[in-house]
Design a protein that fits this description.
- This is Retrotransposon Copia-like N-terminal domain-containing protein.
- The protein is mainly α and 205 residues long.
- The chain has eight helices and two strands, in the order E-E-H-H-H-H-H-H-H-H.
- Helix 1 (55-68) crosses helix 7 and helix 6 (137-149) runs antiparallel to helix 7.
């Protein structure tokens, strides 16, 4: 059993005092297969329903929410589906279906219907990435134009920088699939983007 499966240290067999729940499996709350009592089907994971516009921002909200719930592995492929004969399959299936429900409820009716019959949450995520994650040429051009034409005007330095940074962040979010997704421990990836932002700020002052 790999390290993504429920290990013996993460499982405890608990018995109800009345004896009615003998053999019931309790999952360690720190494990990805754990579902909090507040987790439910139909729960709104994010406040924004994705309707085909603003994918970058919506994508980030979803990732933050799933990371907080320890469920990102179900969409990024780091948690693989166990064999149906595995003791952990039912726990995986419950979490997978829960993530599918959350994703569907965060999509407009039209988009949700197009991925409704996907059986694995990662399949839904991959399809959304393929369809909407590509950078949008006209929007990129529009944001680049806004950045180049942005003037400080009556704004103080803090206000001007905040507005400029928001434009840079929006531009970055439009280009979600262009970014390297591998683990980076040297910080070079973050430094490169920060350098681009700093260059843009300097040229606009």
């Amino acid at each position: 059993m790999d390290d993504k499966s429920i290990s013996s240290s993460s499982i405890a067999q608990v018995t109800d005092l009345a004896g009615t729940d003998a053999g019931k499996t309790a999952i360690d709350p720190s494990h990805s297969f754990y579902l909090h009592p507040s987790d439910s089907l139909g729960m709104l994971l994010v406040n924004t329903v994705f309707d085909g516009k603003g994918y970058g921002g919506w994508r980030r909200e979803i990732l933050i929410a799933l990371l907080a719930k320890n469920k990102v592995g179900f969409i990024d492929g780091s948690i693989s589906q166990p064999k149906t004969s595995s003791d952990s399959f039912k726990s995986w299936a419950r979490c997978n279906d829960m993530v599918i429900s959350w994703l569907l409820d965060a999509l407009s009716k039209e988009i949700a219907e197009s991925v409704l019959y996907s059986k694995i949450s990662q399949q839904i995520w991959n399809e959304l990435e393929e369809r909407f994650g590509q950078s949008n040429g006209p929007q990129v051009y529009h944001l680049q134009k806004q950045i180049s034409e942005l003037a400080q005007g009556n704004l103080d330095i803090a206000g001007y920088y905040t507005k400029l940074k928001r434009l840079w962040d929006n531009l970055d979010n439009l280009d979600t699939c262009q970014h390297c997704t591998c683990d980076c421990h040297c910080g070079d990836k973050a430094n490169t983007f920060k350098s681009q932002q700093d260059d843009g700020l300097s040229s606009s002052l």
